[in-house]
Design goal:
Nucleoside Triphosphate Pyrophosphohydrolase; alpha+beta; 8-stranded mixed sheet; 12 strands
């Protein structure tokens, strides 16, 4: 099928003993003169490799039919699964973390991908399906949860948000952990700039005190 230009946004969350639920974000300088920093979540576009048959064959714990039911019947089952794959790629590119299973018994593993491999995968110098095959891994899509989506009424392109519960000690260069209510307070006080979709996601997250309470709803 022709790629639609959809975006996939990763909302990585963790539990902090001090701050409760926190979300991973990037913080960059806002427009000149704004006096604040722009907060956003990591994202990428769904590409043809994400929903190609060799990639989907290396995935675990999600069917195309279930993915399509969650995302909408206007897209194919393969493309719907590919949105989860894109979210897994964003997680890997942002944190170096890959949720996977290995071996005949599908043993869960959390693979930390080395910076050199991570750069090659992010730049598409190494194909994701080839990497999974070489490492004898299957990408565990069941550990990524569909959160919400917005559809542009003009183009029909969608922005799909996915949740991932990551280890409490996970660090990522250039990224910042915020409690959702802290981020919204900083936005109110003019210290952060948020687009509407990021604001709406943060507002939803303030209703939850832990990753377990959040993911039980999704």
């Amino acid at each position: 099928m022709v790629d639609r230009g959809d975006r996939v946004v990763l909302v990585a969350v963790r539990d902090s003993r001090r701050f409760g639920l926190q979300v991973l974000s990037s913080s960059t300088a806002a427009a000149a003169g704004a006096g604040s920093r722009e907060l956003s979540f990591p994202w990428d576009r769904v590409d043809s490799g994400d929903h190609a048959a060799p990639t989907l064959e290396r995935c675990h714990d999600l069917t195309g039919a279930r993915a399509r039911r969650l995302l909408g019947h206007e897209i194919s089952p393969a493309y719907a699964m590919g949105c989860w794959v894109a979210a897994a790629r964003v997680l890997l590119a942002t944190t170096g973390l890959l949720f996977a299973v290995k071996g005949e018994h599908r043993t869960p593993v959390q693979r930390r991908v080395l910076p050199r491999e991570r750069q090659a995968l992010s730049g598409r110098a190494v194909d994701f399906a080839d990497f999974l095959s070489r490492e004898q891994l299957r990408c565990d899509l069941g550990r990524l949860f569909f959160f919400t989506q917005w559809v542009d009424p003009g183009s029909g392109c969608a922005t799909k948000f996915f949740l991932a519960n990551v280890p409490a000690g996970l660090r990522s260069a250039g990224a910042v952990w915020y409690a959702p209510d802290e981020a919204l307070l900083r936005w109110r006080d003019g210290g952060l700039s948020l687009d509407f979709q990021t604001f709406a996601c943060l507002r939803i997250l303030t209703d939850f005190s832990s990753c377990d309470s959040l993911l039980s709803e999704y």
